[in-house]
Amino acid sequence: MITNILAVAGEAAPQNQFGFLEAMEQGGIIAWSIFGVLVIMSIGSFYILFTKIFEQNKIMRQYKAVQSGFWRANTLDEGSKKLEKNSAWRQLVDDAMDARNSHTKMGDNLEAHDWLHGSLARSEAAINARLAGGLPFLATVGATAPFVGLLGTVIGIYRALINIGLAGSASIDKVAGPVGEALIMTAIGLLVAVPAVFAYNYLQNRNKRIAERLSGFSTALLANISSNGAVKPEPMTATSTAQAAKATKTPTTGTSAAAPAGTTASRTTTTTTTKR
């Protein structure tokens, strides 16, 4: 008997469906349009994130080749051949050599130096601008996606109020669908905006580190050209990199600080010849 009562109660219970698809269907073309905009924003954000990470990793990998092999070459022309084509570092070297070849037409050495410095600065700015491509889209998504979701929220609440007014009572079956749609849109807007903001800050930080290396390499190129190849950084090797990392971890107290000083002095010692 109890089983029959439960069966009859189950049949009499309302079979209302309140899910994502049902809420979107109640929202109509406006809800689906807002959802489509948010999906496009999310796909674009992740596409920019992964492509920029790949591009940044490639530039950092090429920088290791610059440290280890480029400055071992006798001339810039020979060193440029060791770099990958269409790379940021190769572009800086090529622009530096073009500026070097054209600055000989200037009679004043100061004007020649300014010309070289300006050419390298323009090349460096072009590389940084290319690395920053796509970041404005991430910033836009992070700033506007919550408001796009909020638009869906406002429309959903507005529809809920209309249903309440037509029904004359605030029954749950009249407001659950529109309110659920409103909450879903708010959640989707936040899910789209938060990853975009994190991606923007992450890529921006990595671009700053790359810009610092580009600036240092540009300065080294300028010094090398101005000194006719006499000034060049010491090539980094695996041993020197390990020693530098070890030196940064060694505390500069007591006798430990004397060793680096002696080492520096031994490196800067010059050989003199006595005239007879």
Automatic annotation (TrEMBL):
<feature type="domain" description="MotA/TolQ/ExbB proton channel">
    <location>
        <begin position="108"/>
        <end position="214"/>
    </location>
</feature>
<keyword id="KW-0997">Cell inner membrane</keyword>
<keyword id="KW-1133">Transmembrane helix</keyword>
<comment type="subunit">
    <text>The accessory proteins ExbB and ExbD seem to form a complex with TonB.</text>
</comment>
<feature type="transmembrane region" description="Helical">
    <location>
        <begin position="29"/>
        <end position="50"/>
    </location>
</feature>
<keyword id="KW-1003">Cell membrane</keyword>
<feature type="region of interest" description="Disordered">
    <location>
        <begin position="232"/>
        <end position="276"/>
    </location>
</feature>
<dbReference type="Pfam" id="PF01618">
    <property type="entry name" value="MotA_ExbB"/>
</dbReference>
<dbReference type="InterPro" id="IPR050790">
    <property type="entry name" value="ExbB/TolQ_transport"/>
</dbReference>
<keyword id="KW-0472">Membrane</keyword>
<comment type="function">
    <text>Involved in the TonB-dependent energy-dependent transport of various receptor-bound substrates. Protects ExbD from proteolytic degradation and functionally stabilizes TonB.</text>
</comment>
<feature type="transmembrane region" description="Helical">
    <location>
        <begin position="182"/>
        <end position="203"/>
    </location>
</feature>
<feature type="compositionally biased region" description="Low complexity">
    <location>
        <begin position="237"/>
        <end position="276"/>
    </location>
</feature>
<dbReference type="InterPro" id="IPR002898">
    <property type="entry name" value="MotA_ExbB_proton_chnl"/>
</dbReference>
<keyword id="KW-0653">Protein transport</keyword>
<feature type="transmembrane region" description="Helical">
    <location>
        <begin position="137"/>
        <end position="162"/>
    </location>
</feature>
<keyword id="KW-0812">Transmembrane</keyword>
<comment type="similarity">
    <text>Belongs to the exbB/tolQ family.</text>
</comment>
<keyword id="KW-0813">Transport</keyword>
<protein>
    <recommendedName>
        <fullName>Biopolymer transport protein ExbB</fullName>
    </recommendedName>
</protein>
